[in-house]
Amino acid sequence: MIATFKFNDFNIGDPYNPPHNTLFFATSKSKSFSKENYAIKKLEFYDPGSFKTNEDNLKSLCQSVRSASILKPEAIANDGLEIFILYEKMKCDLSELIQNNDRKRMKFTPDEMKVFLKQITLALEELENKQIAHTNLKPKNILISMEGDYKLVDVGIQSMNEDNDFKAPEAIVKSKSGNINLHKSDVFSLGLILVQMMTLRSSKELGGFKQNGYKLVEEVFEEIRENYGKDMQKIVKDMLDLSDSRRKSMKQMRDDLEAIYNSVNEQKVIFFFKIS
Fold first, then answer.
1. What is the DSSP letter of 46?
2. Domain end (from 88, 109, 141)
3. pTM of this structure
4. Range 102-105, long-range pairs (CB < 8 A, 24+ positions)
5. Do 97 and 83 fall into the same domain?
6. Range 126-148 burial, b when 16+ CB lie within 10 A, else e
7. Ordered mean pLDDT values, 10 residues apiece, the chain (276 residues)
8. Do 44 and 177 fall within a single domain?
Protein backbone atom coordinates (compact mmCIF):
# COMPACT_ATOMS: atom_id res chain seq x y z
CA MET A 1 0.00 0.00 0.00
CA ILE A 2 1.12 3.52 -0.70
CA ALA A 3 1.97 5.40 2.49
CA THR A 4 0.66 8.78 3.61
CA PHE A 5 2.65 11.72 4.89
CA LYS A 6 2.03 14.85 6.93
CA PHE A 7 3.29 18.27 5.94
CA ASN A 8 4.92 18.84 9.30
CA ASP A 9 7.19 15.86 8.53
CA PHE A 10 9.03 18.12 6.05
CA ASN A 11 10.65 21.47 5.62
CA ILE A 12 8.97 22.44 2.36
CA GLY A 13 10.71 24.94 0.12
CA ASP A 14 14.37 25.79 -0.31
CA PRO A 15 15.71 29.21 -1.44
CA TYR A 16 18.38 27.42 -3.47
CA ASN A 17 15.83 25.08 -5.08
CA PRO A 18 12.65 27.08 -5.71
CA PRO A 19 9.43 25.29 -6.71
CA HIS A 20 8.94 24.63 -10.43
CA ASN A 21 6.13 22.99 -12.40
CA THR A 22 4.15 22.70 -9.13
CA LEU A 23 7.07 20.64 -7.78
CA PHE A 24 8.31 21.70 -4.34
CA PHE A 25 11.60 20.50 -2.92
CA ALA A 26 11.41 19.27 0.65
CA THR A 27 13.72 18.06 3.39
CA SER A 28 12.56 15.32 5.72
CA LYS A 29 12.35 16.06 9.46
CA SER A 30 11.08 12.58 10.29
CA LYS A 31 13.02 9.35 10.74
CA SER A 32 10.08 7.61 9.08
CA PHE A 33 11.53 8.52 5.66
CA SER A 34 14.71 6.88 4.42
CA LYS A 35 16.01 9.81 2.37
CA GLU A 36 16.78 13.36 3.40
CA ASN A 37 15.63 15.16 0.24
CA TYR A 38 12.36 14.72 -1.62
CA ALA A 39 10.10 16.50 -4.09
CA ILE A 40 6.43 17.15 -3.42
CA LYS A 41 4.10 17.67 -6.38
CA LYS A 42 0.77 19.42 -5.96
CA LEU A 43 -2.19 18.47 -8.18
CA GLU A 44 -5.60 20.17 -8.15
CA PHE A 45 -8.84 18.54 -9.31
CA TYR A 46 -12.20 19.77 -10.51
CA ASP A 47 -14.50 17.64 -8.41
CA PRO A 48 -14.52 14.88 -5.77
CA GLY A 49 -15.12 12.22 -8.42
CA SER A 50 -12.00 13.04 -10.45
CA PHE A 51 -10.02 13.43 -7.22
CA LYS A 52 -10.99 9.93 -6.04
CA THR A 53 -10.31 8.41 -9.49
CA ASN A 54 -6.83 9.87 -9.64
CA GLU A 55 -6.05 8.89 -6.06
CA ASP A 56 -7.06 5.31 -6.92
CA ASN A 57 -4.92 5.44 -10.09
CA LEU A 58 -1.87 6.36 -8.02
CA LYS A 59 -2.42 3.45 -5.64
CA SER A 60 -3.02 1.01 -8.52
CA LEU A 61 0.16 2.20 -10.25
CA CYS A 62 2.29 1.45 -7.22
CA GLN A 63 0.89 -2.05 -6.93
CA SER A 64 1.10 -3.12 -10.58
CA VAL A 65 3.99 -1.37 -12.36
CA ARG A 66 7.57 -2.61 -12.04
CA SER A 67 9.58 -0.50 -14.53
CA ALA A 68 12.50 1.43 -13.03
CA SER A 69 11.72 4.20 -15.54
CA ILE A 70 8.39 4.99 -13.88
CA LEU A 71 8.82 7.14 -10.79
CA LYS A 72 6.42 5.84 -8.17
CA PRO A 73 5.11 8.00 -5.36
CA GLU A 74 6.64 7.24 -1.99
CA ALA A 75 3.62 8.67 -0.15
CA ILE A 76 0.59 10.90 -0.71
CA ALA A 77 -1.36 13.47 1.25
CA ASN A 78 -4.62 15.20 0.42
CA ASP A 79 -6.28 18.46 1.32
CA GLY A 80 -9.72 19.11 -0.10
CA LEU A 81 -9.48 18.65 -3.88
CA GLU A 82 -5.69 18.66 -3.88
CA ILE A 83 -3.31 15.70 -3.86
CA PHE A 84 0.28 16.14 -2.73
CA ILE A 85 2.59 13.41 -4.03
CA LEU A 86 5.93 12.66 -2.40
CA TYR A 87 8.68 11.65 -4.83
CA GLU A 88 12.36 10.98 -4.58
CA LYS A 89 14.10 14.25 -5.44
CA MET A 90 15.10 14.47 -9.10
CA LYS A 91 17.70 16.67 -10.79
CA CYS A 92 15.35 18.40 -13.28
CA ASP A 93 12.64 17.64 -15.83
CA LEU A 94 13.06 17.10 -19.57
CA SER A 95 11.60 20.53 -20.45
CA GLU A 96 14.40 22.17 -18.45
CA LEU A 97 16.98 20.01 -20.21
CA ILE A 98 15.54 20.95 -23.63
CA GLN A 99 15.57 24.65 -22.69
CA ASN A 100 19.16 24.37 -21.53
CA ASN A 101 20.17 22.72 -24.82
CA ASP A 102 18.26 25.40 -26.73
CA ARG A 103 20.16 28.17 -24.96
CA LYS A 104 23.41 26.48 -25.99
CA ARG A 105 22.01 25.68 -29.47
CA MET A 106 23.05 22.10 -28.81
CA LYS A 107 20.76 19.29 -29.95
CA PHE A 108 20.62 15.90 -28.25
CA THR A 109 23.20 13.52 -29.70
CA PRO A 110 22.17 10.17 -31.26
CA ASP A 111 23.65 8.37 -28.22
CA GLU A 112 21.65 10.60 -25.84
CA MET A 113 18.50 9.89 -27.84
CA LYS A 114 19.18 6.14 -27.61
CA VAL A 115 19.41 6.29 -23.80
CA PHE A 116 16.19 8.32 -23.62
CA LEU A 117 14.30 6.02 -25.99
CA LYS A 118 15.47 2.84 -24.31
CA GLN A 119 14.23 3.95 -20.89
CA ILE A 120 11.00 5.76 -21.78
CA THR A 121 9.69 3.36 -24.43
CA LEU A 122 10.36 0.42 -22.12
CA ALA A 123 8.22 2.09 -19.45
CA LEU A 124 5.45 2.93 -21.93
CA GLU A 125 5.40 -0.62 -23.31
CA GLU A 126 4.92 -2.00 -19.81
CA LEU A 127 2.04 0.42 -19.29
CA GLU A 128 0.54 -0.65 -22.63
CA ASN A 129 0.85 -4.34 -21.67
CA LYS A 130 -0.97 -3.65 -18.41
CA GLN A 131 -3.67 -1.53 -20.07
CA ILE A 132 -2.55 1.63 -18.28
CA ALA A 133 -2.26 4.72 -20.50
CA HIS A 134 -0.15 7.68 -19.44
CA THR A 135 -2.64 10.22 -20.98
CA ASN A 136 -0.55 13.27 -20.04
CA LEU A 137 2.83 12.66 -21.65
CA LYS A 138 4.97 15.79 -22.03
CA PRO A 139 8.53 16.91 -21.20
CA LYS A 140 7.52 18.26 -17.78
CA ASN A 141 6.27 14.81 -16.82
CA ILE A 142 9.59 13.16 -17.62
CA LEU A 143 12.07 13.74 -14.80
CA ILE A 144 15.82 13.17 -14.80
CA SER A 145 17.41 11.58 -11.76
CA MET A 146 20.68 12.62 -10.13
CA GLU A 147 22.28 9.68 -12.00
CA GLY A 148 20.91 10.89 -15.37
CA ASP A 149 18.10 8.33 -15.77
CA TYR A 150 14.73 9.31 -17.24
CA LYS A 151 11.60 8.72 -15.14
CA LEU A 152 7.91 9.02 -16.07
CA VAL A 153 5.61 10.71 -13.56
CA ASP A 154 1.86 11.45 -13.40
CA VAL A 155 0.87 8.23 -15.14
CA GLY A 156 -2.87 8.24 -15.82
CA ILE A 157 -3.41 11.51 -13.94
CA GLN A 158 -5.04 14.66 -15.30
CA SER A 159 -5.63 17.67 -13.10
CA MET A 160 -6.53 21.35 -13.37
CA ASN A 161 -2.89 22.47 -13.45
CA GLU A 162 -1.77 20.14 -16.23
CA ASP A 163 -1.92 21.91 -19.61
CA ASN A 164 -0.51 19.77 -22.41
CA ASP A 165 0.60 20.98 -25.87
CA PHE A 166 1.80 17.45 -26.63
CA LYS A 167 -1.62 15.78 -26.57
CA ALA A 168 -2.61 13.78 -29.66
CA PRO A 169 -5.27 15.34 -31.95
CA GLU A 170 -7.82 12.60 -31.31
CA ALA A 171 -7.43 13.08 -27.54
CA ILE A 172 -8.21 16.81 -27.90
CA VAL A 173 -11.43 16.39 -29.88
CA LYS A 174 -13.96 15.60 -27.17
CA SER A 175 -16.81 14.94 -29.60
CA LYS A 176 -15.01 12.16 -31.49
CA SER A 177 -17.23 9.13 -31.91
CA GLY A 178 -16.04 5.74 -30.74
CA ASN A 179 -13.38 4.86 -28.22
CA ILE A 180 -9.96 6.52 -28.27
CA ASN A 181 -6.91 4.27 -28.09
CA LEU A 182 -5.08 6.18 -25.38
CA HIS A 183 -1.95 4.07 -25.82
CA LYS A 184 -1.65 5.25 -29.43
CA SER A 185 -2.27 8.80 -28.21
CA ASP A 186 0.76 8.33 -25.94
CA VAL A 187 2.76 7.25 -29.03
CA PHE A 188 1.84 10.53 -30.76
CA SER A 189 2.80 12.56 -27.68
CA LEU A 190 6.16 10.80 -27.50
CA GLY A 191 6.69 11.54 -31.20
CA LEU A 192 6.24 15.28 -30.55
CA ILE A 193 8.67 15.06 -27.62
CA LEU A 194 11.24 13.40 -29.91
CA VAL A 195 10.80 16.14 -32.52
CA GLN A 196 11.40 18.81 -29.89
CA MET A 197 14.50 17.04 -28.58
CA MET A 198 15.89 16.51 -32.09
CA THR A 199 15.13 19.97 -33.50
CA LEU A 200 14.60 22.25 -30.44
CA ARG A 201 11.38 23.52 -32.04
CA SER A 202 8.94 25.42 -29.85
CA SER A 203 5.71 23.93 -28.53
CA LYS A 204 3.81 26.35 -30.80
CA GLU A 205 5.55 24.99 -33.90
CA LEU A 206 4.92 21.42 -32.77
CA GLY A 207 1.19 22.15 -32.73
CA GLY A 208 1.27 22.20 -36.53
CA PHE A 209 1.84 18.44 -36.58
CA LYS A 210 -1.77 18.00 -35.45
CA GLN A 211 -3.19 19.37 -38.70
CA ASN A 212 -2.85 18.62 -42.40
CA GLY A 213 -0.85 20.97 -44.60
CA TYR A 214 1.56 22.25 -41.96
CA LYS A 215 4.24 23.81 -44.17
CA LEU A 216 7.20 23.11 -41.87
CA VAL A 217 6.55 19.39 -41.42
CA GLU A 218 8.74 18.19 -44.30
CA GLU A 219 11.46 20.66 -43.32
CA VAL A 220 11.45 19.25 -39.77
CA PHE A 221 11.50 15.64 -40.99
CA GLU A 222 14.39 16.42 -43.34
CA GLU A 223 16.29 17.93 -40.40
CA ILE A 224 15.75 14.71 -38.44
CA ARG A 225 16.95 12.60 -41.40
CA GLU A 226 20.14 14.66 -41.74
CA ASN A 227 21.01 14.48 -38.03
CA TYR A 228 19.64 11.08 -36.98
CA GLY A 229 19.22 9.04 -40.18
CA LYS A 230 16.35 7.98 -42.43
CA ASP A 231 15.34 5.05 -40.20
CA MET A 232 14.73 7.35 -37.24
CA GLN A 233 12.95 9.80 -39.54
CA LYS A 234 10.53 7.03 -40.59
CA ILE A 235 9.89 6.00 -36.99
CA VAL A 236 9.01 9.57 -35.98
CA LYS A 237 6.78 9.94 -39.04
CA ASP A 238 4.92 6.76 -38.08
CA MET A 239 4.46 8.02 -34.52
CA LEU A 240 2.99 11.30 -35.77
CA ASP A 241 0.49 9.76 -38.20
CA LEU A 242 -2.71 11.79 -37.80
CA SER A 243 -4.76 8.61 -38.13
CA ASP A 244 -4.71 6.80 -34.81
CA SER A 245 -5.91 3.63 -36.57
CA ARG A 246 -2.78 3.62 -38.76
CA ARG A 247 -0.44 4.72 -35.98
CA LYS A 248 1.65 1.91 -34.52
CA SER A 249 1.42 0.65 -30.96
CA MET A 250 4.23 1.22 -28.49
CA LYS A 251 5.29 -2.43 -28.82
CA GLN A 252 5.55 -2.02 -32.61
CA MET A 253 7.53 1.19 -32.15
CA ARG A 254 9.95 -0.58 -29.83
CA ASP A 255 10.37 -3.41 -32.36
CA ASP A 256 11.28 -0.81 -35.00
CA LEU A 257 13.74 0.87 -32.64
CA GLU A 258 15.24 -2.51 -31.80
CA ALA A 259 15.94 -3.06 -35.49
CA ILE A 260 17.80 0.25 -35.65
CA TYR A 261 19.87 -0.19 -32.52
CA ASN A 262 20.77 -3.87 -32.92
CA SER A 263 24.46 -4.31 -33.56
CA VAL A 264 25.58 -7.40 -35.49
CA ASN A 265 29.20 -8.54 -35.09
CA GLU A 266 30.35 -12.01 -36.20
CA GLN A 267 26.76 -13.30 -36.10
CA LYS A 268 26.32 -12.13 -32.53
CA VAL A 269 23.37 -9.82 -32.06
CA ILE A 270 23.49 -7.39 -29.15
CA PHE A 271 20.00 -6.31 -28.14
CA PHE A 272 19.92 -2.77 -26.77
CA PHE A 273 16.18 -2.60 -26.10
CA LYS A 274 15.04 -6.07 -25.12
CA ILE A 275 15.24 -7.43 -21.60
CA SER A 276 16.92 -10.81 -21.34
1. S
2. 88
3. 0.86
4. 102/200, 105/200
5. no
6. bbbeeebbbbbbbbbbbbbbeee
7. 75 59 76 79 78 76 83 82 83 90 90 94 91 89 92 78 79 63 93 95 85 80 94 94 91 90 55 55
8. no
